[in-house]
């Protein structure tokens, strides 16, 4: 689905990362594979270190820490927030919405909207699109988009498919109304027939978590996980991304009447380096325009990878300069989405640890 | 060294416990899993100085030596 917005801008991005750094080698012994094979994959997939939340830390804790940081430094005015979006697959509770909990924690004004959105890999794009839609309303001038996931407790330590690439993190993106007259082109697509390609089978209402669902079983490849753990059909997800993402990006460029080279930065979701490089090849993007260093340094924190890619690779540069950016997310849902937008002159663009 | 010999060498280095000169389906027989395929693509690209398209990274293309040869030739290997 093609969408188009005007007169909206991103005015600040903050990434909040767990302090705990876990090297791939430290966990290699947990996997049921020869060391040589694991090290070979480390190179190809870009496994290196990932950030894992401390026990008991939830997604909302990272958001609250980041928001407090912004309030304390006068980088964000509490009263200016008209909407709070929390995009995550790891809410604090089934109910109430985590966005309401965060609103309550800070005593934000009542004249606002709080929304939880269950999205993952494309969560930054879906969140931005929702923010743009809200900003179409005259009474909404500022949306605070929270992308956060702490999924490490749900990934088996004996699952080499998923564990090495998993990361926990949160990001806070300020999205404002403005009068710059610039178009923002978006694409959003979903295919629920592939919904079970990435899932946590037990723990919801369909299959409640029980002692039986917590029993680990070994799959044909030698990974062990329980029904309480995240399971990913890696082949299906890889093939889906290679099939759907390049045409989506080429169509977006065509709508903007731009060539692949006209874009300054391609900030894509980062499941692993191999997949990203293959996408870059298919679209005709030079690797230097598509940073692929997030999974190797921080891990894949679902919808937080794209904002982390922006804060890590551009940092303070983005407070002075403006770049034409193509963002894309793809994965759980299955969902694939992209946005073509000018991003620059931000009030802040940085990473903090928590 | 022929292309076939080179491929068998790469596969054997990857999974030394199996005999890749046998005429069997490597995927169906469990001789290669999806992560082996990823490592194999990386090695084939380096050894044959080619790029294998992402849409071609599907199990069928790596199930036999003949299929791998076909894939390599399609992507410009000589």
Q: TL;DR?
A:
The complex is a heterodimer of chains A (354) and B (78). Helix content of chain A is 29%, strand content 27%.
Keywords:
A: 354 residues; alpha/beta; Peroxisomal Thiolase, Chain A, domain 1; six-stranded mixed sheet; 29% helix; globular; B: 78 residues; mainly alpha; Non-ribosomal Peptide Synthetase Peptidyl Carrier Protein, Chain A; 3 helices
Strand content of chain A: 25-35%
The helix/strand order of chain B is HHH
**Element-by-element helix/strand order of chain A:** EEEHHEHEHEHEEEEEEEHEHHHHEEE
Radius of gyration of chain A: 19 Å
Q: For the terminal residues of chain A, how far apart are their CA atoms?
A: 37 Å
Q: What is the topological layout?
A:
The complex is a heterodimer of chains A (354) and B (78).
Chain A: E1 2-6, E2 8-17, E3 21-23, H1 24-28, H2 35-45, E4 49-51, H3 59-72, E5 83-87, H4 98-106, E6 113-117, H5 123-134, E7 142-149, E8 169-177, E9 183-190, E10 198-199, E11 217-218, E12 224-225, E13 231-232, H6 234-256, E14 265-268, H7 273-283, H8 294-297, H9 305-314, H10 317-320, E15 322-331, E16 335-344, E17 348-353
Chain B: H1 3-14, H2 34-48, H3 65-74
Helix pairs in contact in B: 1-2, 1-3
Task: Write up this protein.
Chain A is of the alpha/beta class. Chain A is 29% helix and 27% strand. Chain A has ten helices and 17 strands. A six-stranded mixed sheet of chain A has the order 6-5-7-8-2-17, sandwiched between helices. Chain A has a five-stranded mixed sheet with strand order 1-9-16-15-14, sandwiched between helices. In chain A, helix 6 runs parallel beside helix 7. Helices cover 47% and strands 0% of the residues of chain B. In chain B, helix 1 packs across helix 2 and helix 1 crosses helix 3. Chain B has a single domain, classed as Orthogonal Bundle (Non-ribosomal Peptide Synthetase Peptidyl Carrier Protein, Chain A), CATH 1.10.1200. The model of chain B has no long low-confidence stretch (mean pLDDT 88). Chain B is an all-alpha fold and 78 residues long. Chain B is globular, with a radius of gyration of 11 Å. The interface between A and B is medium-sized, with 23 and 16 residues.
């Amino acid at each position: 689905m093609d969408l188009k917005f005007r007169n909206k801008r991103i005015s600040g991005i903050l990434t909040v990362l767990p302090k705990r750094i876990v090297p791939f080698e430290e966990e290699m012994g947990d996997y049921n594979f020869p060391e040589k094979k694991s090290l070979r994959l480390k190179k190809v997939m870009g496994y290196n270190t990932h950030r894992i939340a401390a026990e008991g830390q939830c997604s909302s804790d990272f958001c609250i820490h980041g928001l407090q940081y912004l309030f304390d430094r006068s980088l964000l005015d509490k009263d200016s927030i008209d909407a709070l979006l929390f995009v995550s697959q790891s809410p604090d509770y089934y109910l109430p919405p985590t966005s309401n909990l965060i609103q309550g924690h800070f005593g934000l004004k009542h004249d606002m909207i709080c929304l939880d959105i269950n999205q993952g890999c494309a969560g930054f794009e879906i969140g931005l699109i929702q923010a743009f839609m809200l900003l179409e309303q005259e009474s909404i001038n500022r949306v605070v988009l929270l992308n956060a996931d702490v999924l490490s407790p749900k990934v088996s330590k004996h699952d080499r498919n998923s564990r090495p690439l998993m990361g926990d993190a949160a990001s806070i993106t300020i999205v404002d109304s403005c009068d710059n007259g610039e178009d923002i082109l978006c694409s959003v697509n979903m295919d629920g027939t592939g919904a079970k390609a990435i899932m946590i089978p037990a723990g919801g209402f369909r299959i409640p978590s029980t002692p039986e669902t917590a029993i680990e079983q070994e799959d044909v490849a030698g990974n062990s996980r329980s029904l309480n753990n995240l399971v990913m059909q890696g082949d299906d997800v890889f093939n889906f991304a290679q099939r759907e993402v390049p045409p989506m990006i080429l169509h977006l460029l065509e709508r903007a009447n731009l060539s692949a080279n006209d874009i300054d930065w391609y900030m894509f979701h980062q499941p692993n380096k191999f997949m990203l490089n293959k996408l870059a090849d298919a679209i005709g993007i030079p690797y230097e325009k598509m940073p692929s260093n997030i999974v190797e340094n921080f891990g894949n924190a679902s919808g937080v990878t794209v904002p982390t890619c922006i804060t890590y690779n551009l940092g303070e540069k983005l407070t002075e300069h403006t770049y034409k950016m193509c963002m894309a997310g793809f994965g759980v849902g299955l969902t694939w989405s992209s946005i073509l937008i000018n991003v620059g002159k931000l009030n802040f663009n940085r990473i903090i640890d928590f | 060294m022929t292309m076939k010999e080179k491929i068998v060498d790469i596969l054997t280095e990857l999974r030394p416990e199996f005999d890749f000169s046998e005429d069997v389906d490597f995927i169906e027989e469990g001789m290669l899993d999806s992560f082996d395929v990823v490592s194999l693509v990386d090695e084939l690209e380096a050894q044959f100085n080619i790029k294998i398209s992402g849409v071609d990274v599907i199990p069928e293309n790596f199930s036999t030596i003949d299929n791998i040869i076909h894939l390599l030739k399609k992507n410009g290997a000589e």
